[in-house]
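Risk register update: the risk of archive-format incompatibility is retired. Evidence:
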Amino acid sequence: MDYIVNTLDNLIHQTAFFNLTVGNYIMIAVACVFLYLAIRHGFEPLLLTPIAFGMLLVNIYPDIMIAPEDAANGVGGLLHYFYILDEWAILPSLIFMGVGAMTDFGPLIANPKSFLLGAAAQFGIFTAYFGAIWMGFNDKAAAAISIIGGADGPTSIFLASKLGQTAIMGPIAVAAYSYMSLVPIIQPPFMKLFTTEKERQIKMGQLRPVSKLEKILFPVVVTIVVGLILPTTVPLVGMLMLGNLFRESGVVRQLQETASNALMYIVVIMLGTSVGATTSAEAFLNWDTIKIVILGLVAFIVGTIAGVVFGKLMCKMTGGKINPLIGSAGVSAVPMAARVSQKVGAESDPTNFLLMHAMGPNVAGVIGTAVAAGTFMAIFGVF
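Archived output:
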């Protein structure tokens, strides 16, 4: 009888009910909300679903992220090994290769002025940097946090790992991916606030055709130029351009399909679940996390506004040929931000088609965010 009682007692105390804290239950509830948003409302489900489920797993079973040196048998948890690939900046770089393989850079090549809109939208990054320092973060932590303003999850993870800010990588990554998912909710009110109905109705002329040679040369030239100026950006910009070269060269269709489909989705699963798994209650429920979430939101809003305002300036300088709405796509959430520009424009004029025009600033924003990350690395002497 004692044996049975002891066995049952051991089994009962092995359940999660006896090991979880109030914070764990809060994070489990947050994970369920994220899953609801991803599945019911379609807020970037490819990103939010694995992140939310990783959050759920680590708060039910914390040892899924345990390091080998802390484990009794010397074997780390499953998601710990996924997370190592984040720390080594491998998964973010592979994500960039997939994005390059999926994306047509033609609109940016056809309208090089889009680079200016992409650059303007990075203003939010530097606003957040100084805001983070004001809130008490050290300079490297402030730099890692500020990249959230580019709405670029992979770059946020990449810079946080390179600057040794792994302690706050989880909140940074979750904030960045959350804002990427919520682009359709966050951006439109500010886009409408800073534009008039007449400006939103502006129809832009058809983009010029881009030759195959231009599309092939573009990734090569950008890699050389950006790499020579800021070598620290090569892991991101180089992989982005390699993926695009796969797409445009036409001679490695299998590599392009693998990079943009199978490999991309495998990496998203590993990166998403490992990022979500960094949000244990102990690591996530603190004042630093709240500050990071606030700073990220402010940075994202400022970046959106800066892009739209610069778009208004370009509209005036070109005699009304540029719709300011495409400036909001300068944040690097590809292609969500470009779709939002199209949606808001179509609300004012259903016959207005801005998507391809918005893709130019959108792609420029991806490059711009990577350059901003490389600039911070160069400033701090990190390679």
